[in-house]
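The authors assume throughout that readers already know how a fold can be written as discrete tokens. For illustration, here is how one protein appears when written out as sequence plus structure tokens:
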Amino acid sequence: MAGIPRNFPDRDGVVAIGDGRVLGHAEWGPLDGRVVLWFHGTPGACRQVPPDAPDLARAHAVRLIGVERPGTGRSTTHRAASVLDWAGDVERFVDAIGIDRFAAVGLSGGGPFVLACAHHFGRRMAAGGVLGGLGPTRGPEAAPGYTRLLPPFEPLLALLSAPIGEVSSAVMRPLAATVASPSFDVYANVISPECDRPVLKRPDMKEAFLFDITTAAKTGVRAMAHDLVLFARHWGFSLADIEIPIRFWHGDADMIVPLSHGLHQAGLVPDSELTVVPGGGHFSGYETVEEVFHVLLDLWSEPVAQSP
């Protein structure tokens, strides 16, 4: 229908997960399709999916569901203790809407939460895809690079994330509608690395990000700040204990989450493969989404290995 954005969801709303809490979500594709959960980056919201993903979901009979983490969009604010806690929220979410089995994909800051679900759900989760995902920052599995500087600041981040979120909310809400579009244009055309600009300059990409920016502005930066707190802590599980197939995609020109994170994590997860995107930046996963769908659906169709 003319005038409806490409990434406008087929369905959206909230799902009650107990304790008076809800998770916001947006869906594309048939209700009876194989379910792929999509975990947004940091910051992000439920419609932060690649522009081509909704059409691909419909074409491949996939029920694609973007799920908002606590404090983002319509999801109730909640202070998790670790990245692994997200898997408990996801379990309540999928149980509430009657999903037996699913795959999951996460971009950037959504990557750790895909791995948490892989550890928690085992074979109930068919496979996971991590696109430019951040690696652990603490402990023996810490990825190399500048992100190892996060843990020393975790206590301060934890202390300040809530008050900073409250203040930023009051500032950002009235400004979001007027500054979001020009701010995105400056980032896409001037600040972003050259390798990411072809993706960011797509009109449908801007459309999706503007929705996320204005949605995230409703709660300021409190959800993003709490993501950083969780990334700076031990994630609550070991990547080496993940038993389901995980496939990583990472651009070799990514300046936000370096390729070393993809290499490091793929070396730790037992059943994993890494696809390096030549010349790809942080948003190269948006250009490989059709390949991501094919790979995950193929893994879903493979027989489940029986324990000896």
